[in-house]
Amino acid sequence: MSNIQPIKASSQHHIIVADIVDDVVLTKDGGAAVVLRSTALNFSLLSEKEQEAVTISYAALLNSLSFPIQILVRSQKKDITRYLAFLDTQEKLQTNPQLKNLMVVYKNFVSQMVKKRNVLEKEFYIVIPFSPLELGITTSNFIDLFTPSVKTKRAKNLPYSKSYIIKKTKTVLYPKRDHLIRQVGRLGIKMDQLVTEELATLFFKIYKQT
C-alpha cells in the first residue's frame, strides 16, 4: 500500500504575502517590501553615443546598490480586442473614402500580425525588501514575493505590531526607493511606487496564473 499522503494545505498556505497596508506588502515572516513599477528603454534604437551613456549610467546604478532588490518581468499575450473595436468605431466615423480605406487596411494588418505572432506585453517591477532581521527576528531568509513556496510559514508571536513594522519599513525603504528612482532617471527610465490597490491587483494576477 502506498504511503503517499494527500496534500491538505490550501494555496494560501504557500503564499508569502500576509497583508497589503498603506502601499506596503507585509510578509508572513515579519518582513515587508515596497514594489516599484518601471518603464522600459529600447536600447537597440539608441545611437552609439546614447548606448554608451546608458551603459555607464547602468553600471553606476549597480555599483551604487548597497541593498538587495528583486527584478520581476511579466510577459503576457497582448489583448488587442479593445483596440480593434476602437478602429471599427473610427472607421465608421470616417467620411473621407481614402482614409476610410487606409483604416480598413491597417486594421486587417494588425489583426493578421497578432494571429501570426505572439505579441507580448511586458511589465517591469522592482521589489525592495525589508528583512525581519532589521526588526531583530533572527529566523529569516531572503523571500521571493512572487513565487509560492511549500516552506512558507507564518512567524509566531511577532514581537512588534503591524503598524510598527509598516512605520519601520517606510523609514528604511523609502530612502532606498528614492535613490533607485533618481538613479534610473539617468537612464531615461521612470519608476513609481505601486499603491495598495495596484499591489492587490498585481498579486491577484500573478497567483491566479500559478
Helix content: 40-55%
Which structural class best describes the helix and strand composition?
alpha+beta
The global form is extended
Q: Provide the residue-averaged pLDDT.
A: 82
Protein name: TraC-like domain-containing protein
Domain TraC-like: 24-135
Pfam family, one: TraC-like
InterPro entries: TraC-like_dom
Your description of this structure?
It holds the Pfam family TraC-like. 42% of the residues lie in helices and 18% in strands. It is α+β, with helices and mostly antiparallel strands and 210 residues long. It folds into 2 domains: 11-76 and 122-209, no CATH class; 81-116. Strands 1, 2, 3, 4, 5 and 6 form a 6-stranded antiparallel sheet that branches. Strand 2 and strand 3 form a beta hairpin. Helix 2 (81-93) packs antiparallel against helix 3 (97-116). The chain is extended, with a radius of gyration of 23 Å. The model has no long low-confidence stretch (mean pLDDT 82).
Topology:
Layout: E1 17-21, E2 24-27, E3 32-38, H1 48-64, E4 70-77, H2 81-93, H3 97-116, E5 120-130, H4 162-185, E6 191-193, H5 196-209
Antiparallel strand pairs: 1-2, 2-3, 3-5, 3-6, 4-5
Structural key phrases:
2 domains; single chain; alpha+beta; 5 helices; extended; 6 strands; six-stranded antiparallel sheet; 210 residues
